[in-house]
Specification:
A hairpin with a 3-residue loop joins strand 2 and strand 3. The termini are close together. With 83 residues, the protein is mainly beta. It contains no helices and seven strands. A five-stranded antiparallel β-sheet has the order 1-5-2-3-4, with no helix packed on it. A two-stranded antiparallel sheet has the order 6-7.
Length: 83
Amino acid sequence: MGIRAEHLALAPTGQGVRTTVALVEHLGDVCIGYLKLDGVNELLHVKFPSRRLDNLAKGMALNITAQADDVMAFNAHGQRISV
């Protein structure tokens, strides 16, 4: 499964998937957030316009969501498949 960082969106408290901010890169017009998801070893990356998350900081709880159309599936050989 895969999803592009810019296709993830903020979800209201109690909705979506709860994550914890591990690291933030403020890059001018965008912020790249590296999020910890319970039970997952790798960090999840999100990309948001800076004006929406100028106060994003390490340790913050953040709920995220995605549209089903933006999620991609791959087979064992790394080829994209339809779901």
